[in-house]
Amino acid sequence: MDDERILIRRAGPLQGEVVIPGAKNSVLKLMAATLLADGEFTLTNVPAIADVGIMAELLEAIGVRSERVAPDQLRMVNSGNINPVAPYELVERIRASINVLGPLLGRFGRVSLSLPGGDDFGSRPIDMHLHGLEAMGATFELRHGVVEATAERLHGADITFEFPSVGATENILTAAVYAKGTTVIDNAAREPEIADLCNFLVSMGAHIEGIGSSTLTVHGVERGELHATQHAVVPDRIQAATYLAAVAVSGGEVVLRGARADHMDMLLRRFHDMGLTITSIGAGAESSLAVWSHGQLRSIDVATLPYPGIATDYKPLIVTMLTVADGVGIVTENLYPGRFRYVEELQRLGADIRADGHHAVVRGVRQLSGAPVRAPDIRAGAALVVAGLAADGETSVAGVHHVDRGYDDLVGRLAALGADIERVPAP
Ligand code: UD1
Predict the structure, then answer these.
(1) Which of 85, 326, 342, 362 has its CA 20 to 30 A from that of 232?
(2) Which pLDDT tens digit goes with each residue over 89-125?
(3) Model-level pTM?
(4) 336-1-65 Cα angle (round to 5)
(5) Closest to 55 measured CA to CA, from 82, 25, 11, 10
(6) Given the CA of residue 96, which atom of ligand 1 is nearest to it?
(7) Which residues contact 125 (CB under 8 A, 6 or more apart)?
(8) Helical (H) or strand (E) element with 315
(9) Most ligand 1 atoms within 8 A of CB, residue of 91, 166, 304 to mutate
């Protein structure tokens, strides 16, 4: 599986333009939501990432066919012949497989789902998903690692999350669209990818109020009333942040076409504090970001929080930037206990980081030095590539299949900006 490496050598400043693909954390959920209606869906701005292929396989097993009709376009056909069983071999490969639960339960009243896998960090329970659906009338039984869910027809409910879980918000939303009556989700997650899912559901005929806020109100429609639709996936703010981080450590001037400042507000402010000059060009779907860096960064303290706070997915990039910044930065992780594993890899490159529990203290060094490292997950893998841009000599990143799960041609895009980077077969 893990035969390839990404080789990076330090190069000069990055220059040019990079197109930001659609968001992994949106497209996978939109794909799952096609279970809600028969017909032909078209998704555009679909990233070419491995997880889209895995989600397509999972949906194919359940009964929805997908076909890439253009490099960034996916046609999905739901013929109505659905078998609401999500098999272990596919579910274990991708966390977002849990997103078939809401649509299948809402529309068909029964689901058999193996417990999901995905990135191997910390424990990722689904109790909030299950409690919310229970409040709507579902019953669950766990047998031999398989969740068997049933509900004659779900009914509306008032659901207050103790924590704004992204996945739980999505599953309640996609179940509620066919529930009898009104569902109110309080303390809902507010990530731009949730608003994207809401807009997708509305374009299918769902009634949702409060989109983009922490209170979502869903007025259920009759089963079968929703219809297929076309939709452009929201741009990937995490991939956008990756190119910002690349310019930050290399210096240079780059335009990120499609990146949306309004989805990255807090991060852009903190990057400004670190010394980056970032300007927003245009608005909405036509927007871009221009970033300029002279390659010298200042340290900051950062804590991850649910949106609109700094996303946990940005953290490996921020830690990497801090490794070469002036001063000391403290990074606090509030969402996942196990998300500092890549620190050892950065230390191999000469970074001065002390991680303890939820905190990492990062003391900037003048220069990282290239070494072989291994990507432990998607975002950490990309961060190691960025670290390689700032390291003397050659950095070789193994575990490339993790990066491929969430990045659409990271190597090609960075090379086009002038980075000295290539993919090579195993030595
Ligand atoms: C999604 C993203 C992931 C991102 C995360 C937080 C996808 C495929 N993944 O994951 O990249 O890092 O949002 O922005 O979109 N929790 C519970 N019980 C639950 C649900 C969650 O305890 O029922 C906990 C989790 O263990 C975790 C925290 O809540 O500690 C955040 O989880 P959640 O917001 O649900 O993230 P995901 O949807 O899994």
Answers:
(1) 85
(2) 888 888 889 999 999 999 999 999 987 755 544 456 8
(3) 0.96
(4) 80
(5) 25
(6) 8
(7) none
(8) helix 315-323
(9) 166
Pocket-testing residue among 100, 160, 165, ligand 1, by greatest number of atoms within 8 A of Cβ: 165
Q: Fill in the amino acid letter for 419.
A: A
Q: How many domains does the chain have?
A: 2
What the block records as the tokens of 152 is: 């004659």
Contact indicator for 154, 105 with CB cutoff of 8 Å: yes
CA of 396 to the centre of ligand 1 (A): 30
Same domain, 228 and 301: no
Q: Which residues pair with 91 in a beta bridge?
A: none
Which atom of ligand 1 is least distant from the CA of 95? 8
Give the active site residue among 119, 377, 404, 408. Answer: 119
Residue with tokens 């960064």: 297
The last residue of one of the domains, among 232, 262, 294, is: 232
100 and 43 fall within a common domain:
yes
The band of 250, judged by pLDDT with boundaries at 50, 70 and 90, is very high
Q: Is residue 29 within 8 Å of residue 99, measured between CB atoms?
A: yes
pLDDT single digits (tens) 291-323? 999 989 999 999 999 999 999 999 999 999 999
